Amino acid sequence: MIQLLLMVFIGILFLCFALFAVVGKSREKSEIPESEVELLRMLRLGSLEFDATNLFSDADYRFLASEPQLRALARELRKDRRSIALEWLRELQRDVFSMWRFRSFLTRLGVAADTRNELSEAVRSLLLLSLLQVVRESVRLLGPYAFGKIAVAVRTSVENLKRSCAATLSGLPREQWPQIAAEWQRVQALSINSAQ
User: Which 3 state secondary structure label does DSSP give 52?
Assistant: First the structure.
């Protein structure tokens, strides 16, 4: 009887330990650095809030196309997915360009960054913009299912660019972030007014 109680007690301890470990890991993964949260608030990066994995998946299209009476619906789905994918990729390009401009803005404000780092970030941004343009043209010509995995991988690269931009922002004292946000909004308003 004592052995049974001891086994139950040890089992409960293992269960508690396992639950604690799982909750701790999920809490670590869900914590986003404050600079990333502030960056998202300042730049309004809408394209990164959308998970495009299902958008570029052709499983439901193939299912509909396999049924003769649903082929028209499959064509409609493909057309709709194409337009949504093109819009999302366009938004992703805007976000990359916005992060590039924001990083340049931080550099003008005096964030210490060496020339080599700034040049590599500029090249990375240009390559991402170019790749996004190629993917957009591919989606326009071949449909949303041809280069879906590449589009999702490009999103990961944009996420990495966001982290780099947030790291640059975190190089400034937190007390300055509201002033930087206000100045960024002013610069954005000036650029919108000058474009009109």
Answer: coil
Tokens 């970030």, residue located: 121
Packed helices 115-142 and 71-108: angle between N→C axes, nearest 10 degrees? 160
What is residue 102's DSSP assignment?
A: H
Give which of 57, 49, 56, 55 is closest to 95, Cα–Cα: 49
Terminal Cα distance for the chain, rounded: 83
| CA 176, 179, 184, 187 torsion-angle sign | negative
Which residue type occupies 120?
S
Cα 179 to chain center, whole Å? 25
CB 123 within 8 A of CB 163: no
pTM: 0.73
Strands (E), 57-119: none
**pLDDT tens-place values along the chain, 196 residues long:** 677 655 655 656 454 444 455 444 444 444 556 766 777 777 778 888 888 888 888 888 889 999 999 999 999 999 999 999 999 999 999 999 888 888 888 888 777 667 788 888 889 899 999 999 999 999 999 888 887 788 888 888 888 888 888 888 887 788 888 888 888 888 877 776 665 5
